[in-house]
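Backbone geometry:
***
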Amino acid sequence: MSVYIVLTADIVKSRKLKKTQSQEDEVRDKIKALNKRLKGGLLAPFSLMRGDEIQGVLLPKTDVADAIRQMRYLLRHFKLRIGVGVGEITTGIGSSNSWEMDGPSFHLAREALELLKARERGTKPMTMVRTDSLDLDEMVNVIFLLMGSIIKRWTPEQWEAIDAYSRLGTYKAAACEIGIAFQNVQKRCYAARWGEIKAGEEYISKALQRFAHERMKTDYSPI
């Protein structure tokens, strides 16, 4: 039995956005860029469906929190709700199209997405994880909520610096790509609380990887 991570996202208020071919082309181009970045960590690449939903399947070894941040960066002109489901895939393994697959992981991702849509009062998280472990879900989702309260304050310049630094590994390399002094990359990352965000991402990804590993060692009963 194998466990996978399904990400199902929708573009918030997409019906109110001006429908143009150029806008749809932009979304598809960004999805292609995301798939290129995550190459090697995907069971099925991300694709656009129904005009406003994006879905892909990650291998259990993939850094899910990092993948979510990269999705948000590349599609930063759009507001996304992202549901994450961790579980088995029972139908369609081998297909390159996630929309042809099915199983508990897809149902959990859909459930997470619908829960996000239903939040009308109080705090409004934009990312939610669902597994078959309530304790794990509550812990991971609180961390996502706290990180989101910081990330939503990032400026475009901070987003750019963090994206480059997280991919390239050094301030010097990031500065070279962006075209600014490396000290400015460092300042932007510090002001954005990148160290704290990175620690939260690593914890989430390791927790979900451990969960997937444990489920693959035991009999898994679909929900």
Summary: Strands lie at 3-11, 42-49, 53-58, 80-88, 127-130. Residues 3-133 form a domain with the Alpha-Beta Plaits fold (CATH 3.30.70.1230). DSSP finds eight helices and five strands in the chain. The radius of gyration is 17 Å.
